[in-house]
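Changelog-adjacent note: as of this version, every example in the card shows the full chain rather than a window. The one below runs 120 residues end to end.
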Amino acid sequence: VPTLEMIGSMLQAMGYQAVPFESATALALARRGQVFHALVLDLAMPDVDGFELIYQLADTRPVEPVIIISSLSNTIKQAAGLVCESLDIPVLGVLSKPFSADELAFFLAPHTRAVAASRG
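Full-length structure tokens:
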């Protein structure tokens, strides 16, 4: 859970309202009642692997854009991105762990501006 806490702290320091989920099941339950602006998706989770979660996300609409994070190989991260795109899940970026707040902000900032502009 240290990565989860670190990402939550990074996002809050950037001014985002971050909602950490310790499992894919907890995320699925939360998504029944609300839509998030974006999801930071770790490919290694305690209850399912990231690919299984990607398929779960694709079964629900609307699908939030994702930032894929992992310490797995670049090939696996790129494969996850391709699977997302094939399922019409927007991919804002792919990050290798560990990463900095600046790297995370690089992928979130354009999306945040687009969401704000769409609200007028």
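Structural remarks: The two ends are 37 Å apart (CA to CA).
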